[in-house]
Amino acid sequence: MSIYTQMIGKLTTPEVMGQFSWLYGNREGQMLAQLNRHKTVLIRHEKQFDAEGPVWLISAPGRVEIGGNHTDHNHGRVLAAAANLDTLAAVSPRDDMIVNVFSEGHAPQSVDLSGLDPVAEEAGTSAAMIRGVAAGMQAEGHAIGGFDAVMTSTVASGSGLSSSAAYEVLIAAIFDRLYGNSNMDFVTQAKIGQRAENVYFGKPSGLLDQMASAAGGLVTVDFCCDEPDVQPIAYDFAAKDFALVVVATGGSHADLTSDYAAIPAEMKQVAAHFGKQYLREVMPDVFFADLRALYGKVPDRALLRAMHFFRENERVLRQVDALRRDDLWAFLWEIKESGRSSFEYLQNVWCKPGDQSLSLALCMAEELLGEEGSWRIHGGGFAGTTLNFVPIARLDRFVTAMDDVFGCGASHVLDIRPVGAHTLQIEP
Predict the structure, then answer these.
(1) Which residue, 269, 237, 312, 251, is CA-closest to 72?
(2) Which of 30, 128, 331, 376 is the most exposed place for a label (fewest CB within 10 A)?
């Protein structure tokens, strides 16, 4: 009996189904969907590679940014969570330095890890992420080697849930599983992923996305120093009859890199006025006291974005405090205030007058939820998704209304995944 037949046969055991429940939640149809996903990647791996040795099922989650919009890149605070949407791989080791990845919906990738310097032609591709993560692993003293993988993902590219961070964290977890002891700490894992995205892929992201994916659960992170302070938050929104819903409006991220890059650049421009590199190093009262001197020396939008940073950084503390006090309504109010600040001061809801789909989604959420829920821009902004906290009693109406405008499946009802990268435990 092949290893594939053995593994597929064990997917329906109580032990494995319990892991599915833990990772993905128990919403209707979830168990069957995960059983089919895991079975499919194993079948595809057998067809493509027919490995004789061990095959592993490894996944890494997308992330939800709950508080701290565009604060991480200036060493601020965030509140974030791993989502129960993930990138899943069936993977086996090789005896050389070649990485082969067959990812559903994408062209096959083959990367030779005998050279780990950035390759200009790979910028913006998954090959760049693979090479960048491998380079980071090696630089941190971790072993690397080739592997054959078949992947599938429910973290769609452009969904606003950071498919890139899920991919980077997954690649690091694969190297660690195949050539290490699966003992890499999640902070190192996240930093390796961010460097791969910044230096190899070519996107100037902060550390929030990779950290939330790698850490798992609901966490608050303070990026004030080289070693981020990550604290878990125990809160069950479902137990309060609320659902987290992200709405993908269908806007394209194409040609928006400069818009994203302008936000940290303008914040740092303000910091430079005070002789600092990051806004977190500037005291808010010093900034506000010096506004007259700043006005005219830096762009007005940079001042507004700095104001957003200072207020958002403090807002995260109030959000965390509200959850720890179990004051859900105070928390929901702070979420709406975060959204208002992003819209008015950070100005990352739209950049092209002809495409204001995110603005429309936010306005619709206000109409549909009123005082009963909350809504805000999610993640980087300009295109992508909104984040909504929706009472279960209004969930069907909310999803129907959003999907009616933005297309079937635009709304994703999420659960918080309790762990970051995970290897499915299947006993031989």
Answers:
(1) 312
(2) 30
CA distance 2 to 211: 37
Per-residue pLDDT tens over the stretch 313-352: 999 999 999 999 999 999 999 999 999 999 999 999 998 8
Q: Which tens digit of pLDDT belongs to each residue from 143-160?
A: 999 999 999 999 876 667
Query: What's the pTM value of the predicted model, to 2 decimals?
Result: 0.92
Q: How far apart, in whole angstroms, are the C-alpha atoms of residue 410 and residue 247?
A: 5
Using alpha carbons, list the distances in angstroms from residue 406 to 140, 160, 169, 368, 410.
44, 15, 30, 15, 6
Please name each of the domains of the chain with its CATH number.
Answer: 3-233+417-423 (3.30.230.10), 238-414 (3.30.70.890)
DSSP 8-state assignment for residue 75: T
Among 230, 174, 237, 201, smallest CA distance to 391 is for 237
DSSP conformational letter for 200:
I
Among residues 85, 14, 89, 15, the alpha carbon closest in space to that of 55 is found at 89
Q: Which of 85, 107, 30, 54 is nearest to 427 (CA)?
A: 54
